[in-house]
Write a structure and sequence with these properties.
The chain has about 700 residues and is mostly beta strands. It folds into 6 domains: about 1-100, Single Sheet (N-terminal domain of TfIIb); about 125-195, no CATH class; about 210-290, Thrombin, subunit H; about 310-415, Immunoglobulin-like (Sandwich); about 425-635, no CATH class; about 645-680, no CATH class. It starts with a strand and ends with a helix. It has a 7-stranded antiparallel β-sheet, with no helix packed on it. It contains 7 helices and 44 strands.
Length: about 700
């Protein structure tokens, strides 16, 4: 047993081949090789080709998911291996040589390796029976004395499904269905065909019996006697007429099995219930077809040329792509089947079979329509609704396509999980070009430089003060330079290099240009420049979008978020709208997450502190399979006196003013007038000074 690569198609093989389309729950018979045994299989993931090699060296081909197969040749080498390359071309490798297939046509691709495509006919006579103007039954004749062990060699098999019957004279028919039955006697199998080109009938110069009328009467349980007009001496049955078929429009056909004499022959009927017993048919009202094999088989069965082209409507160049479906999201697929059925009617039935490996993982809906050009368009929508991760294959099988087609099956892999391309991005209020980041200068309309170059070994302030950083994160790290703001013990025991750990210079940190422009805290050692804003920052819009395969999707409900400052700074505030539904989710999630939950739509940030703020925004769990996290930085400059200077001055002024007021109140309460006492003292001093100066002059 073997699974076709990256699909849920399971093949069990031996002297038969069975196919399971549901991963092994049920099987159906694809091929029966009787005494021959399949020993090796080879698979092409790109084109869905599957090659079977039997013990006798016969090589068979099928397509993943198809119920039909074909014979493509033989392998005579005792030691060999086959393999498909990344483009779906088959190659054969033996100890002394290498053979490669080069054509996109399945048969042409294998012809250079396995030889000319073989005739899949078998050695018996066929009896045609019209069932409509364009449809015909072919009955395979099995003689009554045929040994039981060889009966299967004279019957139609699954290998003939979807093939073409060709007459050596002229005419082609497409086999649409294989029938196995016990009656009528002598015919154990038949095929329903659709005529592409009309089959040629026998002429009088080939069978002189056609120049006579024909009388039919029953001669036994299942045989019938065909009698020519005895008055017509030129009309005779000959030995070459054995295994030819008498076709009478509107009645059963008759396969001639033996010649009694020149005027009489025995035949068996293809439809005994429609035999015109004891009826004479005039000349030119009955016809003779030759699908016998007494003098060499006059008919062949070959593979049908490709009858459908499969076209993908999206821009993907891969036939078996991988699609990620996040929780609550959907993926859409579309394929177009273009008919190439010359001379055949187009079936007004769905041409694509949609098969899901694990139907419980994802919700798959399919819709198919025919357009005005008879092309069939299949639209498929895949939705992930359950909080369950996993992977499954989705097979789109063009069940009516011939094995000759390069592509008949598309097997995209659907993953109910997070795509590695899916990420959340913060959209800044003003975009700064990369060139300006490199130069370190980007001025707004008022001439304010919006880029701040951080000091070497910079660490943001803590709640204890600007000069007391407590974070472990360095920015613009350089191990060869001194660390500023490193006077206090708490500052000395914190601060750890990441990219620059265990190196002595900044050059040895090996910071890339992308890391120097990254907002991620993991690359803070490399970050040199950050966005700069004037104090205070009010109502800064925190715009978040999800980047998914070059598509930006706004982050909105149910994608609620939490916001933290990675350096544990406090003087910032968020404002957001809280509708009723979001309020319920918010109240439910906050006790579980031990963090504030915000509505990302209309989220605004206000900052009352100074210097660098480094924020991390995370989507709450349970609404996505992805770990959606984004970081952004804001440097607040031109702030007033930093904490605690402004507060200390205000407190000191308040204490002094309060003391003065209290002193004045106490003086008033004790009836003390310091101002009057002061002026009295001043007058006394002035009088004393005047008296002294007068005495000195005298």
């Amino acid at each position: 047993m073997i699974f076709h690569p990256r699909s849920h198609f399971l093949y069990a093989y031996g002297n038969q081949v069975w196919l399971s389309l549901d991963g092994g729950n049920t099987f159906k018979l694809i091929a029966d090789f009787h005494g021959d045994i399949i020993t090796k299989t080879y698979h092409s993931f790109y084109t869905s080709d599957i090659t079977f090699v039997s013990q006798s060296g016969k090589v068979y081909l099928t397509k993943a998911g198809l119920s039909k197969y074909t014979k493509i040749g033989n392998v005579a080498d005792k030691i060999f291996t086959l393999y498909y390359d990344h483009l779906g071309f088959i190659h054969k490798l033996t100890p002394d040589h290498f053979e490669a297939g080069r054509s996109i046509s399945t048969l042409e691709n294998s012809r250079s390796i396995f030889g000319q495509a073989p005739d899949m006919g078998f050695e018996t006579a066929l009896a045609p029976q019209y069932i409509s103007l364009n449809e015909m039954l072919f009955f395979a004749y099995v003689p009554l004395n045929e040994p039981p062990e060889t009966v299967h060699t004279k019957k139609f098999k699954n290998i003939h499904y979807g093939k073409l019957i060709r007459s050596r004279k002229t005419g082609t028919a497409y086999i649409r269905k294989i029938l196995q039955h016990e009656i009528p006697t002598g015919f154990l199998s038949s095929v329903i065909t659709e005529m592409i080109d009309p089959f040629g009938i026998e002429e009088v110069n080939e069978s002189s019996c056609l120049s006579s009328s024909l009388y039919i009467n029953q001669s036994g349980n299942f045989s019938y006697k065909l009698t020519l007009d005895p008055q017509n001496a030129k009309a005779l049955f000959q030995d070459t007429d054995i295994e030819k078929t008498v076709v009478i429009p509107g009645h059963s056909s008759f396969l001639i099995t033996s010649i009694l004499d020149g005027k009489n022959a025995l035949a068996i009927a293809t439809m005994p219930n429609r035999v015109p017993n004891n009826v004479t048919f005039l000349k030119d009202s009955w016809f003779l077809y030759n699908f016998g094999q007494r003098n060499g088989r006059t008919w062949n069965i070959y593979s049908k040329p490709c009858n459908y082209w499969l076209q993908q409507s999206d821009d993907s160049t891969s036939l078996n792509i991988v699609k990620y479906v996040d929780l609550g999201n959907s993926q859409n697929l579309e394929v177009k089947i273009i008919p190439n059925t010359k001379g055949l009617r187009i079936l007004e039935t769905p041409l694509v079979e949609v098969l899901v490996g694990d139907p419980t993982l994802l919700e798959v809906k399919a819709k198919g329509i025919f357009d005005d050009a008879d092309s069939y368009i299949m639209e498929i929508s895949v939705v992930s609704r359950a909080l369950r991760q996993g992977s499954t294959s989705l097979a789109l099988v063009v069940w009516e396509a011939a094995t000759e087609c390069f592509v008949t099956t598309i097997v995209p892999t659907l993953k109910s999980s997070c795509s590695y391309l899916r990420a959340m991005r913060h959209i800044p209020s003003e975009s700064i070009p990369v060139e300006d980041w490199i130069q370190g200068v980007h001025r707004d309309s008022q001439g304010f430089n919006m880029i701040k170059t951080l000091p070497v070994n910079y660490r943001p302030p803590s709640n204890m003060g600007i000069a007391i950083p407590l974070t472990d994160n360095f920015y613009h790290a350089d191990p060869s330079q001194p660390i500023p703001r490193n006077l206090f013990h708490k500052s000395k025991v914190t601060g750890k290099y990441k990219q620059c750990a265990n190196v002595s210079t900044r050059e040895e940190c090996n910071c890339t240009d992308a890391q120097k422009l990254s907002y991620a805290v993991a690359f803070s050692d490399c970050r040199e420049k950050v966005p700069r804003f004037k104090f205070p920052v009010t109502q800064y819009p925190v715009s978040l979008k999800i980047f998914n395969e070059s598509v930006l999707i706004p982050v909105k409900s149910p994608y609620l978020v939490t916001v933290t400052e990675v350096n544990l700074r406090k003087n910032w505030q968020l404002k957001h709208s809280v509708p009723v539904k979001i309020k319920k989710l918010k109240n439910y999630l906050e006790p579980l997450l031990h963090a504030s939950v915000y509505n990302p739509l209309g989220l605004n940030l206000s900052i009352k502190g100074s210097e660098l703020f480094h924020f991390r925004v995370s989507v709450v769990p349970g609404v996505t399979f992805c770990d959606l996290v984004e970081e952004f930085q804001i440097y607040v400059d031109d702030a007033p006196l930093p904490f605690p200077g402004h507060t200390l001055i205000a407190v000191a002024a308040a204490v002094v003013l309060g003391g003065l007021i209290f002193t004045a109140f106490m003086f008033q309460l004790r009836d003390i007038h310091p101002w009057s006492t002061f002026w009295k003292w001043m007058r006394t001093r002035m009088s004393a000074a005047y008296t002294c100066s007068h005495i000195v002059r005298t």
